Amino acid sequence: MIEFFNRKNGIFWIAFICGFYPLVFYVSNNFYMVNSPGHWGYFILFFIGLSLLGFLAMEAFFGIFKNVRKYREHGLFIMVIMVTATLMSYAMKLRLMKKILGVILIVSVLLSIKLHDRYRKLAVLIFIMSILPFLNIFLKVYEQNKEMPFTELAADIKDVQFEETPSVYMIQPDGYVNQTMMEGPLYNYKTDFYEWLKGKDFKLYDHFRSNYPASIPSNASMFSMQHHYYGDVVFSDLEMPCGREVISGQNTVNYVFQNNGYRTYFLAQDEYFQQNLKDGSFDHYNIDKDEIPYFTVGDKRKKELQEDLKPVLADKPGRSKFVFIEKLLPHHIHFVPKENQIEEERLEYLEKIEEVNDWLKETIEMIEKNDPEAVIMILADHGGWVGMTSYPDMFTTTDEQNLRSIFSSIAAIKWNGHLKTGFDSELRSTVNLFRVLFSSLANDGSYLKNMEDNSSYNLHRENWYRKTVYQSLDDAGNKTHVPLKK
């Protein structure tokens, strides 16, 4: 292979490899967030294009200044290292790590004094390093495109017809736990918000929980109205195939509402659910695809949700609406190592609880003023994770209180007279939320015969590279630790 780089166009291939490795590294680690054709084209131009430009500039330099051409191999050695390191810095952190790159530059200059003729071997090493992430991309492309039942509309209920068509507003305060968890030993906090909701005729479902521990898997199961068990994949993870496509694209919930004449709205505080730039099926999004940058961790476009809600409330008066509102508070803790980490992060979480309580009260009153007959749902996507210290901790814990901290979530619904007696007796988890709602609006209890299992599923860390899906809480909410057999 080294001889291959000695050919006339060998420098082109060296430049290609120096850009190819950061490209496949970035895409393989973020595949489900960046898998649109637009992403692929942009990243190829960015990583490989910049690498090619860098090497072309160097070749032009030595072509113009022939008196220093004897140092060309030194330059190539340094370029192979620096181009790869610079692009890898961006692939890893989405920024240039200037101090580290400065050290690498000094080291590469010193190494080039003795090893300058080894630049081809460096390129071969980088090519070998790119094989594993490239194979990982190949695997994820296959998994993204294979058939998975949860991506299909739930056959038994997709054609349900409502007898009552109130507008439905679903507010999702990220990571907000239920009252029992909030007042328990881990969170140890009392807030008046739960009583405020009761005073507003909300029905609180204490001991309610999510079926999955994070936003993507939890919302994917809620909107599909089906379990997915993190998808049919080799390496299960919180990022999963088709998760964003189901949440912000076509799903059973959106389809049923539209099929019953509703106009549907997707209001998100940032672009996290839409960052893979796939086409959506909701009638309205407060974040347009054109606003979303190709490089993002999902938090570049922060929206003022109440401002975005105002035109929605005024839109199409007299027509039934389904409005999903995602609020990024209180959010889960962030595993920042510090002294007394658990207590410090608990206090930070509780500060955000009071902040989001004010926002929730204002938003609920906005909706009630403009749409007094609406069904309003307050439902978190998962718990606040208080008590955990890291992702490995979260993926290995079997402690019951820790598990409930991961999955417990607030669930409060103002039914406004639309709940049919007994229809919500088995409402204990997010995956069955809309089945209960649709059954009530259709006045047809037969749909409740096909409710999903209420179990909660966590990822259990088997080793450094593999996590296995485990049932952590069973249908009745009892602690278990049973591996899922897919």
Describe this protein with a few key phrases.
486 residues; alpha/beta; Alkaline Phosphatase, subunit A; 7-stranded mixed β-sheet; 15 helices; 10 strands; 10% strand
Report on the architecture of this protein:
The protein has 2 domains: 3-143, no CATH class; 159-483, Alkaline Phosphatase, subunit A (3-Layer(aba) Sandwich). 44% of the residues lie in helices and 10% in strands. The protein contains 15 helices and 10 strands. The strands form 2 sheets. It has a 7-stranded mixed β-sheet, with helices on both faces. A 3-stranded antiparallel β-sheet has the order 8-9-10, with helices on one face. A hairpin with a 5-residue loop joins strand 9 (467-473) and strand 10 (479-483). The protein is elongated. The chain starts with 9 loop residues before the first helix and ends with a strand.
CATH class of the largest domain: Alpha Beta
User: N-to-C terminal Cα separation, in Å?
Assistant: 43 Å
Number of domains: 2
* Strand tally: 10
Order of helices and strands: HHHHHEHHEHHHEEHEHEHHEHEEE
User: On the 0-100 scale, what is the average pLDDT?
Assistant: 95
Provide the CATH topology of the largest domain: Alkaline Phosphatase, subunit A
Structural class: alpha/beta
Could you describe the largest sheet, including whether it forms a barrel? 7 strands, mixed
- Note poorly predicted spans: none
What is the CATH-assigned architecture of the largest domain?
3-Layer(aba) Sandwich
Helix content: 40-55%
The 3D shape can be described as elongated
Strand content: 5-15%
Put simply, the count of helices is 15
CATH homologous superfamily classification of the largest domain: Alkaline Phosphatase, subunit A
Radius of gyration (Å): 26 Å
Q: Going across the major beta sheet, what is the strand order?
A: 2-7-6-1-5-3-4
